[in-house]
Write a structure and sequence with these properties.
The chain contains 8 helices and 14 strands. The chain is α+β, with helices and mostly antiparallel strands. It has 2 domains: 131 residues, D-amino Acid Aminotransferase, Chain A, domain 1 (2-Layer Sandwich), CATH 3.30.470.10; 160 residues, D-amino Acid Aminotransferase, subunit A, domain 2 (D-amino Acid Aminotransferase, Chain A, domain 2). A hairpin with a 2-residue loop joins β3 and β4. The chain starts with 10 loop residues before the first strand and ends with a helix. The relative contact order is 0.15. The N terminus is likely disordered. Bound molecules: pyridoxal-5'-phosphate. The site of pyridoxal-5'-phosphate (PLP) has 13 residues, from α7 and β12.
Length: 301
């Protein structure tokens, strides 16, 4: 049947009819359509296209297993609530993500799940999932990368003072995140750590920041308009099982010069050590990083 057809380049699953229906309205598998990713599928007046008005999640798939399914779905739901989209049918969305992963011919892929506010005037979200082969991060996972800090232009309490700016929701508006990465490349670095106007460490454009201070792994608190990272959560579980402490707190930019390790983590890259920040070399524990990398890659859910 059409659903069994492997698609080589990418796979595309549309959640149909335009999600979300109230939970339990239809069996999720009846609501999925597999379509040709090479053909145009999105309406030109879809608000996701015309205004970037929508949300997304990128799921890592390693050895055919979709990683951190529930944490991604919970974050998607939080984003949907922040944008005041209709309540999501998370079962249908999970099925779509798993089907997109299963239909791809490769076992190590990413699945992007997108929900927009829908076609202008219809007030019915559009949703789709597709699987694709992500960038190859193996070189930087082993050898590390240079990173620059960039000002995000907001104070760290932005989510509380100005919630309409949607900081902390995973919206489709990633043009700024990509522009920041191009700025990093111009400065001879591969990635960015955003810093608030009042001097606090936030996150990367597509990643969570982790540092090690003594025997404690630290990540910036998420009440600063940043995302709760699914990879960071998994990493905290792993390092706790290795006997390290973990802490969520406010971190000043100046502290980063004193750390015993600094990493960027995300579903796509898993874990990458930062070996140079704003031109200053940082300590890099290769063995510990490779141990964590292996454990992150062997996650299943
Ligand atoms: N922060 C931002 C802004 C991101 O875009 C991402 C992932 O794309 C992350 C953090 C890391 O999240 P996760 O580990 O769940 O992929």
């Amino acid at each position: 049947s059409e659903k069994e057809r492997p698609v080589t380049d990418a796979t595309l699953v549309i959640i149909d009819p335009a999600t979300p229906l109230p939970a339990g309205t239809a069996a999720p598998e009846d609501r999925l359509r597999v379509l040709d990713p090479q053909q145009p599928q999105i309406n030109v007046t879809d608000l996701g296209v015309t205004r970037g008005d929508g949300i997304f999640e990128t799921f890592g798939v390693v050895g055919g297993d979709v990683q951190a399914v529930q944490p991604h779905l919970q974050r998607l739901q939080r984003s949907a609530r922040m944008l005041e989209l209709p309540e999501l049918d998370l079962d249908a969305i999970e099925q779509a993500v798993r089907l997109a992963a299963r239909l791809h011919e490769r076992d190590d892929v990413l699945v992007k799940l997108i929900i927009t506010r829908g076609i202008e005037g219809l007030e019915q979200p559009t949703a789709w999932a597709y699987a694709f082969v992500g960038d190859d991060y193996s070189h930087r996972q082993h050898h590390g990368m240079k990173v620059v800090t960039l000002d995000r232009g907001y104070p760290r309490d932005i989510a509380k003072t100005s919630p309409w700016l949607l900081q902390g929701a995973k919206t489709l508006s990633y043009a700024v995140n990509k522009a920041a990465l191009r700025e990093a490349h111009r400065r001879g670095a591969e990635d960015v750590i955003f810093v608030s106007t009042d001097g606090y460490v936030l996150e990367g454009p597509t990643s969570t920041v982790i540092m090690k201070v003594g025997d404690v792994f630290v990540t910036p608190r998420t009440d600063q308009g940043i995302l709760e990272g699914t990879t960071q959560a998994a990493l905290f579980g792993i390092v706790a099982s290795l006997g390290f402490g973990t802490d969520y707190r406010y971190v000043r930019r100046s502290e980063l010069d004193q750390v015993d390790g600094l990493w960027s983590v995300s579903s796509g890259q898993q874990i990458t050590p930062v070996i140079n920040l704003d031109g200053t070399d940082l300590p890099y524990d290769r063995e510990l990083t490779q141990t964590i990398l292996k454990r992150l890659q062997s996650r299943t859910s």
